[in-house]
Specification:
Layout (H helix, E strand, L loop, with lengths): L2 H16 L17 E3 L5 E3 L7 E7 L4 H17 L4 E7 L9 H8 L5 E3 L4 H6 L7 E5 L5 E6 L5 H14 L4
Parallel strand pairs: 3-4, 4-5
Antiparallel strand pairs: 1-2, 3-6, 6-7
Length: 173
């Protein structure tokens, strides 16, 4: 057997094993579970109604400093990229002990995206069963989950924007 062909074959095989499937085909993405809820303003919002847009769903809590940092950045991106079909839904996971702080936190930070307070945890149990905070789901224009990310730390800002821009560049089907 030719050693050069064997090495090439092994490299190609390793590439398919080691590189995540997400990088190969957007067609392998799973459909996002249904999400229908009332916002703090009393409006009904549905993830399916936003099909055709890139949507970031961010799970947060008033006591979570990284959550507020991420939402500040997402709010900035929303203002800059809304015309390109970008949307954000922020879902508060605050329990009874901090529920009274949700509205004042939203007002203090002047977040303009729809805010849902998941008082009973029914949305979180489906979309974020580990109740991670922050937990961010990136939904493509076809309503499929393109990526999910837990936590937020220094340097994640560039990754967030890169993922958003990549999804915005994808053609709607």
């Amino acid at each position: 057997m030719n050693p050069r062909k064997t090495t090439t074959s092994l490299l190609i095989l390793a590439l398919f094993i080691l590189v995540p499937a997400q990088l190969f085909a957007a067609g392998d993405r799973a459909k996002a579970p249904a999400l229908v809820a009332k916002t703090l303003k009393g409006e009904t919002i549905s993830l399916s109604d936003l099909k055709g847009s890139v949507v970031v769903v961010s799970f947060w809590a008033t006591w979570c400093v990284p959550c507020k940092k991420e939402l500040k950045i997402l709010s900035k991106y929303l203002k800059a990229k809304k015309d390109k079909g970008f949307q954000v839904i922020a879902i508060s996971m605050d329990g009874p002990e901090t529920a009274s702080e949700v509205r004042s936190t939203v007002k203090r930070y002047r977040w303009s995206m729809p805010i849902i307070h998941d008082k009973d945890g029914s949305i979180t149990s489906v979309h974020n069963p580990r109740s991670a905070a922050p937990y961010t789901i990136f939904v493509d224009r076809q309503g499929r989950i393109a990526h999910a990310h837990e936590g937020f730390s220094q340097g994640d800002q560039e990754k967030l924007e890169g993922r958003i821009d990549k999804l915005l560049a994808e053609k709607a089907q």
